[in-house]
């Protein structure tokens, strides 16, 4: 019975992310947990979702988990093997991507993400890889799903650099800035699942992971996180866990 | 038709100190690593790199002190190393000049150069610090004609003021080096799997150097003209370099090498260990043959060979390597 | 995966009076003629056509009185008819509204629409009347939101004022109809030979209709992902229409039909003879099967079949036809 | 001996056009006589010339004469089968095309061409097909070769519409207009071969076809055509005629 199911935090987060994908949607996937999520979704409730990788693979049907968006494994069963330009212009900018997965080192209450550097931009304390395609996915996908480690310092009042724009300063500031669509729909972290208020676009706690409390999650957040709508995060089903462990990542490339 | 075939050593020797270059590939696939090792052996300095998502190709060049300025969107080996360690250190130490863009922005810049226009418009970047902030100063831009006069330019559409776009300046490099699956001696190439931004990068360079896993006849490639993406008359030189992308993958030929990538990433954060990596795998070997022997020779490489049904090695162990 | 397969009649019925459309192909190849004949039979009116180098596909639609406005670069069958006779008469009689561009300009406009940007820059047109003059008035432009607010816009590069470019406005059509060699019922298509501007035209349309010589399995097309140029999720409908481009060619399937083109061009300059052509080959037949019978059936069509070694019919007689 | 060689006017013009192509050059070909010319050149003195068609065939090695630039015959032996965008941007606009062939209904002394309409543009007396790729080739090829029928009314003082810009008003007016390269190098007509003055860019008669005189050609021209450098047009060799008739166009598609 599902109540006795054993699962890891990574498995819980992956399942939560996978459930954000609807069948038939066009999904822009990134490396790591998002790859587990899209493959799980395609193997379970969303068999017709179209998985796209910015490096050029379109509508992949992967037999093995890729370790990079440029991985030869993403070409397996693909409808198209093109390049970055076709994916970014014809698919993403043209408005054909329903959901994009992104992550980062810092996230603020409006879902703005920093994956560039910590400290002074010109003399950073810590440098990260940079945007890659994250800024573009954040700007041009119809909605984004954000994956993050949940620590107070990683969810601060203000992030050091906006690599990937979320709802900016909330309200209609995203539209005013010149972005034609999109915005973050959900943030799946190591402690809970957060969503955004319809008009203010401020982040609120939608669910806390089993074993935690809404207050505990809010206390570990660097900004005020409303918790009044919070429930417990739905746990993985035995079937989801079986497919995740035996089909998606039997090698435990990303699963822990 | 005169042959464009040259040796890897001859190809590397064409690239002088201070040259502006882009390398083909994307994070874990089809980087011209053999040529990059040759550049390090030649102790090239002050190179100016343009890229979208390079990986260890840039990281080892930067670590070896060959690079002065870069314009890019991302530098890491993704799941093999979520940050390029020498790139991170170089930025934190102020050892290289850089400018941050997004992948779409850099590809748009290569596309503009390839198309022969001074810029192209896009709808990305709005609201981000990629748009709002510049890493390079106006003085740095003005001092090098190869750097765009401005990072980007925001404008309203003259056809509808309600529509705003960002214009990205074209890139023109002195050199582009691509590693591909097949090439003919006239410069006709065949890219299998994802093409990344290889075609655009080649077409905005003055001199295009191809390193290829296999040299095939022009006639063979002309059998499928829909599969050839790069006009051969834009290619200057072709070198035959089997396993030329190791430790990165080449679709249909071989997979990435998790062991070699692990060795690199375990040591690269430490200056001494990185120097030792260079001594063992770059300076300590004279050519590609010695390099392949140094990384384990046939015993290692045979395990990476691609299964024709997959285009990679389906049973490759990627974690918990003994 | 729900099938996108529909009949040719169903496909034609989707396109209403007044619709804006672009058709695939180039002068003598891969025009969706069967669908165009079906539109004429449906007596469609006030169509708004966008194209680069159409041929008889537009000419017969214009002659049949189906078209109100066109934006194009060229309209003729090249060596089979160096001017589209009904297009020429329609312009000389003031029967259609038009705007002149060049092929590069129209392709740039489709490209902009496909990429999702409001315009793209180019270096062509300077010094020409294609740049200096407009056929459509500001009133005509203002009255139809599908017509760009301006024909084009000249600007200096913000990165170097010495560089001047022409901005071409994006095209967005309500429909695009392509005739291709192979398609799967999920909308995945395979174009063989030249792709013309088919991909860009499809990607700037709200509804994409494919007519195909052959319906194949999605799995077959997924065997060569590098050969598939159009995302299947951008395709709305697929119809199986063998010889769907006759009298024009389809690479690897059949050649153009010099006899049929001769019949058309010999009579099309004359109103009565053109009406008779329509009566015999369009109104007088109910569907593609009857059309193929009317043009000569198997006896004629077998002679057009492509030789697999050439992709066309190497011994086809093109002049001095008895 | 070549002096006894019999040839038609079309053959003379085709050979004159073919001789404008140097070995190894990238050539942008159009329908009709230019196709005869490029195929002849490839079969004779320019085996390494690269023949490009705007519809998408690049580096064709045709076995049969095409009747259109979109003809399946242009794909035969081609290095690439792409589309108009690749040809116009990557090849033509990027400056990789050495010579382009164009023609038209009217040509002025600066090699400006009209292939759009005669009379009032908005209510034309005669409408032609329009630019097609001609304007683009005229703007962006390194040089152009113009093919035309030589009649006074077709070579007027002023043409009704500039479809394809030549040297515009001469001097540096082409550069001033914003064109980055190119310009007409030669005009091959039914009566002679004309070239352009290096700096004024005015057309002058370089050669008159056998049987005609310089004065006769000038008299059939609608503007003043300098003739002081004119010699007789070199006639085809027997080998050129053999290849043209037996190899390039045995069906007499364009040859007369």
Give an account of the 3D structure.
- Chain A is α/β, with parallel strands linked by helices and 256 residues long.
- Chain A has 7 helices and 14 strands.
- Chain A has helices at 9-18, 33-43, 84-93, 134-140, 173-176, 214-219, 238-248, and strands at residues 26-28, 50-52, 57-58, 80-81, 99-103, 106-107, 113-114, 117-120, 123-127, 143-148, 184-189, 192-196, 203-208, 231-232.
- The longest helix of chain A is centred in the N-terminal third of the chain and has 11 residues, at 33-43.
- With 322 residues, chain B is of the alpha/beta class.
- Chain B is built from 13 helices and 11 strands.
- The model of chain B has no long low-confidence stretch (mean pLDDT 97).
- Chains A and B meet through helix 3, strand 9 and helix 4 of A and helix 4, helix 5, helix 6 and helix 8 of B.
End-to-end Cα distance of chain A: 22 Å
Q: What class, by secondary structure content of chain A?
A: alpha/beta
Q: Helical region count of chain A?
A: 7
SSE pattern of chain A, N- to C-terminal: HEHEEEHEEEEEHEHEEEHEH
């Amino acid at each position: 019975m599902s109540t006795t199911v054993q699962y890891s935090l990574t498995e819980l987060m992956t399942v939560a992310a996978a459930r954000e994908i609807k069948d038939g949607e066009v999904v822009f996937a990134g490396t790591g947990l998002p790859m587990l999520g899209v493959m799980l979704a395609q193997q379970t409730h969303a068999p017709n979702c179209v998985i796209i990788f910015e490096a050029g693979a379109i509508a992949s049907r992967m037999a093995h988990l890729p370790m990079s968006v440029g991985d030869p494994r993403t070409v397996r069963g693909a409808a198209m093997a093109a390049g970055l330009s076709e994916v970014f212009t014809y698919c993403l900018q043209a408005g054909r991507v329903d959901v994009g997965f992104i992550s980062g080192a810092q996230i603020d209450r409006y879902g703005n993400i920093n994956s560039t550097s910590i400290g002074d931009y010109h003399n950073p304390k810590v440098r990260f890889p940079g945007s890659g395609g994250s800024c573009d996915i954040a700007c041009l996908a119809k909605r984004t799903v954000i994956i993050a480690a949940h620590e107070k310092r990683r969810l601060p009042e203000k992030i050091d650099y906006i690599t990937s724009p979320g709802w900016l300063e909330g309200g209609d500031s995203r539209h005013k800035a010149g972005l034609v669509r999109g915005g973050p729909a959900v943030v799946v972290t190591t402690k809970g699942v957060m969503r955004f208020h319809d008009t203010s676009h401020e982040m609120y706690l939608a669910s806390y992971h089993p074993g935690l409390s809404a207050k505990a999650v809010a206390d570990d957040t660097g900004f005020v996180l409303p918790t009044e709508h919070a429930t417990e995060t739905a746990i993985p089903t035995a079937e989801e866990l079986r497919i995740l462990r035996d089909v998606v990542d039997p090698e435990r490339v990303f699963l822990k | 038709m005169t042959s464009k075939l040259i040796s890897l050593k001859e190809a590397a020797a064409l690239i002088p100190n201070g040259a502006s270059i882009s390398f083909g590939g994307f994070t874990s696939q089809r980087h011209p690593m053999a040529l990059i090792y040759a550049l390090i052996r030649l102790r090239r300095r002050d190179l100016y790199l343009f890229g979208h998502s390079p990986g260890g190709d840039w990281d080892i060049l930067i670590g070896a002190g060959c690079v002065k300025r870069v314009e890019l969107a991302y530098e890491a080996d993704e799941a093999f190393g979520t940050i390029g360690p020498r790139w991170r250190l170089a930025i934190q130490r102020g050892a290289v000049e850089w400018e941050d863009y997004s992948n779409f922005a850099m590809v748009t810049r290569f596309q503009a150069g390839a198309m022969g226009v001074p810029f192209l418009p896009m709808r990305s970047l709005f609201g981000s610090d990629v748009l709002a902030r510049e890493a390079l100063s106006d003085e740095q831009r003005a001092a090098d004609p190869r750097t765009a006069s401005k990072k980007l330019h925001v404008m309203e559409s003259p056809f509808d003021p309600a529509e705003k776009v960002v214009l990205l300046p074209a890139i023109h490099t002195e050199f582009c080096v691509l590693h591909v699956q097949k090439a003919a001696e006239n410069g006709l190439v065949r890219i299998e799997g994802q093409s990344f931004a290889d075609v655009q990068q080649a077409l905005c360079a003055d001199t295009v150097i191809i390193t290829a896993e296999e040299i095939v006849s022009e006639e063979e490639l002309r059998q499928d003209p829909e599969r050839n993406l790069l006009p051969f008359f834009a290619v200057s030189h072709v070198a035959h370099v089997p396993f030329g992308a190791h430790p990165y993958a080449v679709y249909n030929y071989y997979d990435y090498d998790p062991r070699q990538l692990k060795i690199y990433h375990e040591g690269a954060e430490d200056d001494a260990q990185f120097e030792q990596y260079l001594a063992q795998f770059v300076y300590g070997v004279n050519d590609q043959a010695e390099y392949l022997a140094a990384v384990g020779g046939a015993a290692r490489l045979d395990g990476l060979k691609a299964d024709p049904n997959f285009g990679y090695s389906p049973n490759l162990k990627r974690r918990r390597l003994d």
